[in-house]
Amino acid sequence: MDSMDIHEILKYLPHRYPILLIDRVLSYEVGKDIVALKNVSINEPFFSGHFPHYPVMPGVLIVEALAQAAAVLTLKTENTANREDTVYYFVGIDGVRFKKPVTAGDQLILKVAIERQIKGLWKYSARAEVDGQLVTEATLMCTAKNV
C-alpha cells in the first residue's frame, strides 16, 4: 500500500483550486482501490453560500471528490500521469445516497474500489466517511476522452 502527497496528486489530476478536492492519498493498490482524504475547512469557497448559518459541503462536491480519487486510481492503474489531451468524464452515477451532512472541520475519507473495466469504461464502488461513519455512497462510471 502506497500513499501520495499533494505534489504527486497534482501530477495525476488536472484540477486546481478551488475544485481540487483531494488533499492526500492515504493508501492505494494499483488495479484495486484507493483511500484519500479531503480536509473540509471553513475557508472553502462554497461555504459562504451553502449555508452561511450552517456550513454544509454540497453533496455534488462529495461525489466529485470521490470521482477525483477514482481518477487517481485509474491513472495509477494505467501507469500514466495527467495528459492535456485527455479528460476523464463521468458517464454514470448510480445509487447515490447522502446519509449525513459534511460540515466545516470534518475530515472526509474517500474510499473507491474498481468494480470492473471494459473497453475504456471504468466502474467503481465509492463511499465517503467522516469519523468512521458513512456519509455518502455511490456507484461511479467514467471514461477517458481525447480533447
What does this structure look like?
The structure is a single chain. The protein is an alpha+beta fold. The chain has one domain: Thiol Ester Dehydrase, Chain A, CATH 3.10.129. The protein is built from 2 helices and 7 strands; from the N terminus they run E-H-E-E-H-E-E-E-E. It has helices at about 5-10, 60-80, and strands spanning about 1-5, 25-30, 35-40, 85-100, 105-120, 120-130, 135-145. Strands 1-2-3-5-6-7-4 form a 7-stranded antiparallel β-sheet. The chain is globular, with a radius of gyration of 15 Å. The model has no long low-confidence stretch (mean pLDDT about 95).
Throw out a few tags for this protein.
7 strands, 7-stranded antiparallel β-sheet, about 150 residues, 2 helices, alpha+beta, single chain, Thiol Ester Dehydrase, Chain A, globular
Main beta sheet: strand number and arrangement? Answer: 7 strands, antiparallel
N-end to C-end Cα span: 33 Å
Q: What's the number of domains?
A: 1
Specify the CATH architecture.
Roll
What is the fold-level CATH name, i.e. the topology? Thiol Ester Dehydrase, Chain A
- Secondary structure class reads alpha+beta
Order of helices and strands: EHEEHEEEE
Q: Helix count, per DSSP? A: 2
Strand order of the largest sheet: 1-2-3-5-6-7-4
Total strands: the figure is 7
Helical residues, percent: 10-25%
Strand content: 35-45%
Give the C-alpha Rg.
Answer: 15 Å
| CATH domain class | Alpha Beta
Task: Give a summary of the structure in a few sentences.
The chain has one domain (2-146): Hotdog Thioesterase (Thiol Ester Dehydrase, Chain A). Helix content is 18%, strand content 44%.
